[in-house]
Amino acid sequence: MKWMAYYSWHIATIAIAVVALGYTTAAIWSERLDYAIISTGIAFSLIALATGVSVKAKLPLRTFPIIPLFGLVVLLGLAGISV
66 to each of 2, 16, 40, 73, 80, how far by Cα in Å? Predict the structure, then answer.
């Protein structure tokens, strides 16, 4: 399942760029809070996707490092949105 790890990291790299762009836009223009909300939603969706793939493939969750990575992003995103 080495290909799955490579695939996950490639998706994570693209997603990190998109999410970072959303948070950056929200930070620069405070009226664009919706960008931060969307970025948080994308991060949460990727956690759900990785968890689903892990369960379906009967692999331990620890084989998907994208889960804790985006878990932190979601927590910080929710903290930032709630302020």
Answer: 15, 10, 14, 10, 21
Signed CA dihedral, 29, 40, 75, 72: sign only: negative
What contacts 16, CB < 8 A, 6 or more positions away? none
CA distance 43 to 72: 9
pTM: 0.83
The pLDDT tens digits of the residues spanning 35-81 come to: 999 999 999 999 998 899 889 988 888 878 888 989 999 999 999 99
